[in-house]
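TASK: fixed-backbone design
INPUT:
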């Protein structure tokens, strides 16, 4: 659907750089969204994530629905609602509803783009979210009393304050946990090593497969990082994840050797960001450029930073280690590993729900990949908790 066509004359006001960046990302992502305006048994709805400035700070507006409305009683919602025949498209629906619910003047909203539509299974809606920017700062909202119990205005800084975990996932390392597992654990985005993918599978091939989202089966953000080692790859006997070896670098052109099959490839440093973009990933540098603090975590306490990139869960699991609450325990090194206790007594992860230390030790001794899978599940779950419990610097 054409969001821009919705407005004859968009208001002329400077859109803040952060929102311009958001508009660019949304524009690029919208290419592969499913079409939802076609007739279907699901009811179509449009909602509006409305950005605006209050007191010089960027905010988003939500509201709490009353108990009187027919659907989603008492829930916190973005402005929006069901599409009607008179709406040009679902962006128009979102703007019309925002006017009805909160008195927002559609002619003062710059539409930034669409987010991926999603289903509400209980109420049988397919919801198309849109992002917009209200050009007038310090707006006065006029809530519609039948639908709106309370207007909720949240500073963006507060919403972005919660730190997010990016486990380092690339190539063979994704084998241990699938996209569904990661969603269940609460991972918000994944990092891929674009150099490893270039050397291993070839970036053209991934592009032909439909980009990284399709390739990984992951519809949340993908962040591209780039890594290599100057040391010769070591063999561990077990399935290993070793970064490609840098053989030489001349004029920004890297010559790399795969640790998996020994093949070599040439890759220009300056092409890496372009490749990330073509494959639908954000280069880590562009994320940092948006003012997010990106930290990588190799060991010890969680570092400060809103975005934490870490391969710790996977790496420790690969070595047969799990987080026991105080440190990393080696499977098979303690008398407890013959018993019926879980990896950690109060852990609610799936690994602890289905496997005892005795069983895990057995799997590990038999070199079963399930052991690494369950250890990784537990480690990632525990790491997420550790990050969330550490106050943001
Ligand atoms: Zn656990």
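OUTPUT:
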């Amino acid at each position: 659907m054409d969001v821009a066509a919705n407005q004859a004359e968009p208001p002329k006001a400077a859109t803040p750089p952060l929102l311009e960046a958001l508009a660019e990302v949304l524009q690029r992502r919208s290419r592969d969204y499913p079409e939802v305006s076609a007739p279907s048994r699901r009811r179509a709805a449009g909602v509006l994530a409305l950005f605006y400035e209050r007191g010089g700070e960027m905010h988003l507006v939500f509201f709490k629905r009353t108990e009187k409305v027919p659907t989603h009683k008492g829930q916190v919602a973005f402005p929006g609602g069901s599409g009607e025949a008179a709406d040009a498209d679902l962006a128009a629906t979102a703007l019309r509803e925002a006017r009805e619910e909160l008195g927002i003047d559609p002619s003062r909203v710059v539409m930034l783009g669409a987010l991926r539509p999603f289903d509400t299974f209980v109420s049988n809606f397919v919801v198309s979210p849109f992002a917009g920017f209200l050009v007038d700062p310090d707006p006065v909202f006029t809530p519609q009393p039948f639908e709106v119990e309370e207007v909720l205005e949240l500073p963006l800084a507060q919403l972005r304050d919660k730190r997010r975990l990016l486990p380092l996932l690339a190539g063979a390392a994704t084998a241990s946990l699938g996209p569904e597992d990661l969603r269940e654990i609460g991972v918000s985005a994944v990092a891929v090593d674009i150099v490893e993918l270039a050397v291993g599978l070839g970036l053209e091939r991934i592009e032909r497969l439909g980009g990284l989202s399709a390739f990984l089966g992951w519809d949340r953000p993908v962040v591209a990082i780039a890594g290599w080692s100057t040391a010769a790859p070591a063999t561990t006997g077990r399935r290993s994840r070793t970064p490609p070896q840098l053989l030489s670098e001349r004029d920004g052109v890297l010559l790399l050797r795969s640790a998996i099959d020994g093949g070599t490839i040439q890759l220009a440093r300056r092409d890496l960001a372009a490749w990330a973009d073509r494959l639908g990933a954000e280069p880590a540098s562009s994320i940092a450029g948006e003012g997010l603090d990106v930290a990588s975590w190799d060991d010890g306490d969680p570092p400060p930073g809103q975005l934490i990139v870490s391969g710790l869960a996977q790496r420790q699991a690969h070595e047969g280690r799990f987080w026991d609450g105080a440190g990393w325990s080696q499977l098979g090194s303690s008398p407890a590993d013959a018993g019926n206790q879980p990896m950690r007594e109060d852990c609610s992860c799936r690994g602890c729900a289905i496997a005892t230390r005795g069983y895990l030790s057995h799997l590990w001794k038999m070199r079963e990949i399930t052991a690494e899978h369950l250890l990784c599940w537990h480690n990632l779950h525990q790491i997420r908790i550790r990050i969330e419990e550490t106050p943001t610097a």
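COMMENT: The two ends are 42 Å apart (CA to CA).
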